[in-house]
Amino acid sequence: MTSRSKNAVRSYETEIEKSREESNWKKAVELALQLKARSPQHESLAHFLIGEGKLEAFLDECPPIKDNIERAQRELSEAKGFLNLATDEAGKRAGVALDAHLLLGKLHFACGSYDDSLKHYKHAELNTLTEKELPLRSLRIVAESYAIKGLCLEQTAVPSSTSRFKMVEREAEMIHSFELASDLTLLYLQRATSNVRAGATLETALQRAPLLHIRAGRLASAIDRYREMLTAVESTSTQALRLTLARQLAEVLMRGVTGQVYKAPTKVSPPVQSGGTLSRRREENVSEGPWKPRKYTALNQSAVKFTFKVTRKIYVIVFGAVIAVVVAGSSACGAGVRAVCVARRAAALEPRDVALRLIEESIEFAEEALEIEKENEGFLLARCYLHCGIGYQMKAQKTNCRKEKESANATALSHLLEAVRLDDNDHLAFYHLALQHMYMGMLNEAMDATRACLRVRAECGGGLRLACALWSCAAAGARGARGLDAARLARHHYPGAEWPLWTLAALQSVWESEVGRHCPPGDAYSSYAALATGKELLKLLNSGEEDGEQQYCELDALSDSVHDTHSNRDAGELPPKVVYYSN
User: Fold this and answer.
1) CB 322 within 8 A of CB 313
2) Cβ–Cβ < 8 Å for 178, 150
3) SS3 of 248-270
4) Would you state the torsion angle of the CA atoms of residues 379, 380, 385, 388, taken in this order, to the nearest 10 degrees?
């Protein structure tokens, strides 16, 4: 009987471990409850597994972000109770107390109790853990613990009486935590299956260490850290992360490093053959320790693998860098010229890729790119149609010949309709389609496209401007109130920008009395609303602050589109020309 009981317990433990590695938390909790009922001597282990399963199941649904703190405080009390039970003396004897403290630190972080989280990591003696081979699940727990510790140190306030030495020591501990978390995350993703994701906490930790170095003025350390992570052996799970890190490294090198201070990466030393025997097998990658990810043994090997696997992504980064130069330096003299120069260099390196030129040249290159994508059935087909449509749209606005204008407008409309058909999750395509309809006097169609644009991206600046213009035109009638609502929504999304204020003031001055008939006294539509908005605009203009629009034009390498994997929903759109119609 005793032998059968032990075999049954081993069977439960094997199934539970498999469920943990597969993140099947519902099954893990069910098995832990059965283990607790069948084997009372494993009660501490069962308490730990139940608490872990309930915590991870909740965090899979609600990531540990500030918006979910209140919900976490309400729904994680049961998981907290089970994990606390696993930290007693019986839990220490069962070997689960340390892991329970680590998970309690994660739980308190999700609940917003950052000081309590740090206390649990202190109880677990996180700083003194021995570097040794860990099971896959334990590897993730330790990686998340270091990441959360760094985030908690960032979030907790530092007393004003803290000495300069203590501040430096705290910053060093924070960076060390993020760097350890980064190494463990990369190692975990290398060992895990292809469908495993790092999660928000670990992805944040990967990017925080270089940013802290940059904030402290240690640019060389930040570059070294980026290179350290990019030389890790690539796996399916790290491709998106590598793209983000490569883009950030490119931005740092472009903006902060000149030819005099630039240092090439150092050569990676190959592993030394032990025992004096000759080996014909060449090690493709090495690991510097049990908590270090495997790395390529030579720079050329890393470069070859990175270049041939991510070539197209790199040129997406280059294209994004060009747009970033234009957007970030739109007020600086010669910024557009520099952006075109960068694009010309990129086109020479990859002649069959998309390039950006002036209007006539851009149409020519966009059409060439369109033909390439049609021929290869590429994933940038919708974007090629979009850029062709934008080119003809700009050409139609520029030309004075009626025949050429009509032809360009018709071509632009057909290209934009095709872009929307291929990718109905791209707010830029809908925005430019709405703009084209408005240019051609098709106001109902323009309103439909504007609604589609705002459904995809509610805070799209161009879409909100078009909504204001279309709802406040002479044919809008009583719907002018919607134009005011759209202007107020734009003001909410872009508090530091000027255009929502002057749009709102213009609409208030036109639709004030019309709307006021339907509003009670003392409503926001008072007789002084336009004047108050105008004063607010003048105050903003005289404050000398930088235009707030730039912060909303950041490029994101990843796309939310479900049809076209490169429809960039966060890309900055061209500044729209909004025409206001009045009675």
Assistant:
1) no
2) yes
3) HHHHHHHHHCCCCCCCCCCCCCC
4) -160
The whole model's pTM is what? 0.53
Give the residue from 202, 236, 256 where a domain finishes: 202
Last residue of a domain, one of 148, 168, 202: 202
* Adjacent-strand bridge partners of 296: 285
For residue 45, the model assigns a pLDDT of 87
Q: Helix or strand or coil: residue 296?
A: strand
Considering the domain boundaries, does residue 264 fall inside one?
Answer: no
Phi and psi, residue 232, nearest 5°: -65, 145
Tell me how far apart the alpha carbons of residues 15 and 212 are, in angstroms, rounded to a whole number.
42
Any domain includes 482: yes
Q: Count structural domains, the chain.
A: 2
Q: Helix crossing, 402-422 with 427-439: angle to 10°?
A: 150
Q: Identify the segments of the chain with pLDDT beneath 50.
A: 1-5, 273-283, 299-332, 354-357, 474-475, 514-526, 545-583
What's the pLDDT score for residue 242?
83
Helix ranges restricted to H, 192-298: 200-215, 219-230, 239-256
pLDDT score for 108: 92
153, 177 contact by CB (below 8 A): yes
Residue 128's CATH number = 1.25.40
Distance between alpha carbon 218 and the CA centroid of its chain, in Å? Answer: 24
263: in domain: no
Q: What is the pLDDT of residues 397-440, one digit of tens each?
A: 888 888 888 899 999 999 999 999 988 888 889 999 999 998 88
- 242-265 burial, b if ≥16 CB within 10 A, otherwise e? bbbbbbbbbebeeeeeeeeeeeee
CA distance 271 to 256: 34
Q: What is the distance between the alpha carbons of residues 124 and 128, in angstroms, rounded to a whole number? A: 9
Question: Alpha helices, DSSP H only, in 157-199?
Answer: 164-191
Backbone angles phi, psi at 563, to 5 degrees: -110, -45
The pair of structure tokens assigned to 409 is: 């407008």
Residues 321/554, Cβ–Cβ less than 8 Å: no
**CATH code of 550's domain:** 1.25.40.10
Backbone angles phi, psi at 74, to 5 degrees: -80, -40
Q: What is the pLDDT of residues 310-339, one digit of tens each?
A: 334 444 444 444 444 444 444 445 555 656
| CB contact set of 474 (below 8 Å; sequence gap of 6+) | 581, 582, 583
Find, among 150, 152, 155, the residue nearest to 173 by Cα. Answer: 150
Amino acid at 482: R
Contact between residue 381 and residue 390 where contact means Cβ atoms under 8 Å apart: no
Quote the CA–CA distance of 67 and 61 in Å, as a whole number.
13
Tokens of 346: 């990129």
Task: Give domain status of residue 240, yes or no.
Answer: no
**Which residues span the domain enclosing 564?**
423-583
